[in-house]
Structures are given as structure tokens and as C-alpha cells.
Design a protein that fits this description.
Two copies of one chain form a homodimer.
Chain A: H1 7-15, H2 19-31, H3 37-46, E1 51-57, H4 63-76, E2 81-86, E3 113-118, H5 124-140, E4 145-151, H6 155-162, E5 166-171, H7 177-184, E6 192-195, H8 203-215, E7 230-232, H9 241-257, H10 259-288, H11 292-301, H12 307-317
Parallel strand pairs in A: 1-4, 1-5, 2-3, 2-4, 5-6, 6-7
Chain lengths: ~325, ~325
């Protein structure tokens, strides 16, 4: 068997926009391979120009349809667009649910649109780390817009969407009570609210309810001078797409030009630092688990020591290891 | 103002089953207070007798109704029952969605049933750590059964349910496609499958589909000699509750008496060690962020260093700090 191409050799090809090289680097990022780290560091250093947009919404909100529509439109405007979709994934079988990805296959014929479903397993830090490294690959390769799409349920999933410059939360009319309750928990992270399916007769109530909540100061957090707009859209007739694009551009300018925007970019970097550290912690834990940590966890299971004592042993023990 | 009661003084009261002392220790666990750690360590050492049951399911699956019914029934059988419900919670406002908790208020009149909604924010490690510490409080106080209820979407949320001895995944007929796709990702963690709402005319199809998937080896992982049963239930007429209780007891015995069961208890301890270490990492990061880590994250935001370099600085920097 041929030796795999070293990751560092893939970097110039990825920077030149070669899809296979980009895809391989993303695969190695997902695997968390130590060999890929210098390559990913080079890409990180070259990234920073793309407008990263997080799109999230509860199941049934129409967020995947919105992402497809948005990607096609930005592409038609001459932009190269990347989409990183975080799939619910199995902790065991490695299965990922492609579900609504299928709708996006039509987009996949155009090399100016790159779509990747991430199915990262293992640590939660790993899912965030690898997804944002995939964003770097696209960013460094010159994709002007990168969309991170996550399901708007689950602490880890919502956090990843928040690591974008511009966060869009998609609401829709006609969802059940259970879903609505979950939805309320993510509204406040929105820089832009989209109400999809606004062709439906009950959409006006959804829009009205949302505006009422925002006017009452619910479902929003202070974000400098930015007031999160509500944009009704319809995938049927394209309603609202122009307005959405305008709001995205307006928010991108706000992020670049305002002090709160620059501070938020620094906080996103903080988040990455923390998630990468969490993942390193997890990887080193896996590397040491056949060693003395087995003894520690067995003593913990026997309740001879406490979880904090075991955790201290884990954090301290890591320093006994050589870095990979 | 009076000094707060030291956590160590609350321990004997919690062990005696005094609800206010138990609740205060849980609140301190949620806050991650260093002062509470020795007390929580004492409770951990005294715990280990309760049967911990994880119940998870997608929104609309009827899992909260099942948990209520199950808790009332176990209570009627003379057991003391604790319920720890993990709520989707806001990262900012501190709001937690009580939603279906309201249905359980009727249970709250009986001191033999203790219900706690956890709305832990901050790190994902913190949510797992605090929830399992709340389980310890109940376990050490002599509650024979403790149910951990989580929404079956989100990597962090599903992981917590898996930290139980017996995992029940609740399915229901009549859910939408988006929800079904998410559901598929959690089926394999089930030791026991419940199909709720089996009074509905379309329930037989849901049961049949599930059994077909299981027979094909999909949606299941090797778990020693345990074959995960499918239990149809109805909250309307109590169908299936006897069977469910019998299956829970059968699985509890399997966990106690089999080698795979004992190995799983050790792996649950490993999970706790890791989540507690993650949370310690996060807490120390917060404690140091006004210091040199601000400089590190600013350099990261400027892309002068890579996320891995920043993460190494974070992990190494933690050792410069005194422990709290």
C-alpha cells in the first residue's frame, strides 16, 4: 500500500482549492490525528477572511432548506460557499443521519459550493474542534462564505453555531409544544431571526409572537448597537431572501467595524482554545487509559476515591505523558 | 446576613433524607463550588446502592409522561424515587424551560418522590458532573431508584442518560420525519425500548419497524448476553407498566451479576472522571481568563498562534495556578 500523503503536502493543494485535498484534511481533522496539526495550523494562519454564518433551528424549522436556498443564491452572486453540517451522530456505530443532506445533493455538482457533513464522535470538544477546523480549510481555500449548520437542540450543538460571526436562528409556524419549548432556549443567540414557511396561513402569528418577545426584551441578549431583525422567508416563492442577504451583509460589516464585533471575534477564539484543550484532554485520556488511569477509574468505581480526586489524577497524569 | 451553613454540615442531614439539605447540596454542586467538594466526596463514598435509570427520547416521545407514571408506580411499590431532569437551558439568561415538569408537580407533594430540574450552564462537563452529583445525593440519602431524564437530542444530553445503569429509550408513533431521523441516532443506547402511546392506531407500525431494525442488527450494540426488549406502553390505561418494571428489575440484576455489567459500572466511573476533569479545566480557565489567557486568546484571534498552541498553553497554564 502506498504511504498516505503527508498532511503538510496537502496544504498548498487545499489553498489552491483542490477539493480532494480539502476533503482529506477535513477527514484527518475529524480523526484528530496529531500528524495533521501542523497542516491545520498553517491553514488557520491563512484563514480569517471568510464570513462564517451559523444557522440553527429546531427539527422541522426548515433550516436545511434555508441553507440550501441561501447557498445557491450566494453562489449565483459569484461567491464560493462552504457548508459544514453537524449531524446527530451515533456514539457507537459511526452512523450519521444524512436525512436532509440528500436535498442538497443537487448543489454538489458545482465546485463553487462545498458541502460537508461532520459526524464527529468521541469527545464534545472534538466535535467543535473538528468542525471549526473544517471551516478553516474552506476559509483558507478562499471560500467567501462558510455556513455552519447545526440542529438547535443540545448544548454542544448550539455552542458550535455560536462560534460563527453571524448567527441565524430559524423558526417556523406549526411546530408542536415540545418543539416550541426547546426553541425558546435558542432564540437569544440570534443575530438574525428567520421565520421560514411564511407562505403558511399561521405564519403571521409566529412572526407576531416572536416580535412581541423581542420587544419585551425576552429572547435577546445585549449585543452592542445591533438589534436582531426578524426576516420572514418562504422557500416556495423566494420571499425574504433578498432581505436576509442584506441583513447578513449588514451584520458582517457590524462585526468587522464595531468594538463589540471585534471583542466577539476574540471570544470565539477563546471558545476554540477551550474546546481544543478539552479535546486534547480527551485524546490524552484515551492514550493513557490502558495505563494507570484504569486503576484510577476502578478505584473510583469502587468509591474508594471521589470523582474530583480521579479528575485531578487525570489532569495531573497528563503531564507525565509526552506530547504526541 | 447569616453565614451559609458549611456543606460538610449538610451531609448528615442529607443522609437522613432532609429535603432542604439535599436541595442545597445540589444547588452547590450546580454552581461547581469548591467548598462543596469534600461534602460531595463523602456522599459519593456513601452512594452506590441506588438503581440509576436513564430515560431519553426525542421531543414528543412522551418520555416525561412515562417518567411520571413510572415514578408513581415505583413509589406505590414502597420505593423512594428521585428524578433528575436535564432541561435545555439558556447559555445566557439562566432561564430553564420547565415545560413538561409542570405535569409532575402532583408528584411533588410526596417526600418519597424527589424531583429536580437541572439547568446547568457553563461547560458541558459541568452539566454532566452536577447531574451525577445530584444522583449521588439521592443515592446516599437512600432513594432506591433514581431516574435521569434527558432530551434525546444533543451529544452532551444523550451521554448523561448513558451514565445510568439501565437506559430506556422512548419512541412514539406519529412523529415527523425530522424527529424520526434524530431518533435513529439514539436507539442503540437502549437497554430497554419503550414504545409509548400504544393506544394509537399507528403504534403497531412503530413497534414493527423497531423490531425489524433490531432483528437486522441495526440500532443495537453488543451488550453481553442482554437482548434489549421492546415494551409497548400506554399512559391512558397503564398498558405495559408491569412489563416495564419487570424488565427494569431484570436488567438491574444483569448489571449487578454479570461481568459485562460490572465492566460497564467501571466505564461509567471513567466517564465521570473525564467529565469532572473537563469541568475542572473549564473552571480554572474561567479563573485565569483575566490573566495571561486573555493575551493567548487575543494572539489566537489575530492568528499569530494556532488553536493547538493556545490549547497547550491553557493546559500547561493551569498547572501554574494554585488549586482553589
Amino acid at each position: 500500500m502506498a504511504q498516505p500523503v503527508p498532511s503538510l503536502e496537502l496544504v498548498p493543494r487545499a489553498l489552491a482549492g483542490e477539493i480532494p485535498a480539502m476533503a482529506r484534511l477535513m477527514t484527518r481533522a475529524e480523526a484528530g490525528s496529531a500528524e495533521s496539526r501542523p497542516a491545520l495550523a498553517q491553514l488557520y494562519a491563512r484563514a480569517g477572511r471568510a464570513h462564517v454564518i451559523g444557522v440553527t433551528g429546531v427539527p422541522g424549522s426548515g433550516k436545511s432548506t434555508l441553507v440550501s436556498t441561501l447557498a445557491l443564491r450566494l453562489r449565483a452572486d459569484g461567491k464560493r460557499v462552504g457548508v459544514i453540517a453537524i449531524d446527530p451522530s451515533s456514539p457507537y456505530s459511526g452512523g450519521s443521519i444524512m436525512g436532509d443532506r440528500i436535498r442538497m445533493n443537487e448543489l454538489a455538482q458545482d465546485p463553487g459550493i462545498f458541502i460537508r457533513s461532520m459526524a464527529t464522535r468521541g469527545s464534545q470538544g472534538g466535535m467543535a474542534r473538528a468542525s471549526l477546523e473544517a471551516v478553516d480549510v474552506l476559509d483558507a481555500a478562499g471560500y467567501e462564505v462558510v455556513v455552519i449548520e447545526t440542529v438547535g437542540v443540545g448544548q454542544a450543538e448550539v455552542e458550535i453555531a455560536r462560534a460563527a460571526h453571524t448567527v441565524i436562528v430559524v423558526s417556523a409556524p406549526g411546530l408542536g409544544d415540545d418543539i416550541q419549548a426547546i426553541k425558546a432556549g435558542i432564540l437569544e443567540i440570534a443575530d438574525i431571526h428567520v421565520v421560514s414557511k411564511c407562505d403558511r396561513s399561521d405564519a403571521n402569528r409566529t412572526i407576531g409572537d416572536l416580535k412581541t418577545m423581542l420587544a419585551m426584551g425576552m429572547a435577546s441578549i445585549p449585543r452592542g448597537h445591533w438589534v436582531s431583525p426578524v426576516v420572514p422567508t418562504s422557500a416556495l416563492d423566494g420571499t425574504g431572501l433578498d432581505d436576509l442577504i442584506a441583513q447578513i451583509e449588514r451584520h458582517g460589516a457590524y462585526m468587522r467595524e464595531s468594538a463589540p464585533g471585534r471583542e466577539r471575534v476574540r471570544r470565539i477564539a477563546e471558545f476554540r482554545m477551550l474546546k481544543t484543550a478539552e479535546d486534547l484532554l480527551y485524546q490524552r485520556y484515551l492514550a493513557t487509559r490502558q495505563g494507570r488511569l484504569d486503576v484510577v477509574s476502578a478505584r473510583l468505581a469502587q468509591r474508594e476515591i471521589s470523582p474530583y480526586q480521579a479528575a485531578e489524577a487525570l489532569l495531573d497524569g497528563l503531564h507525565l505523558e509526552d506530547h504526541p
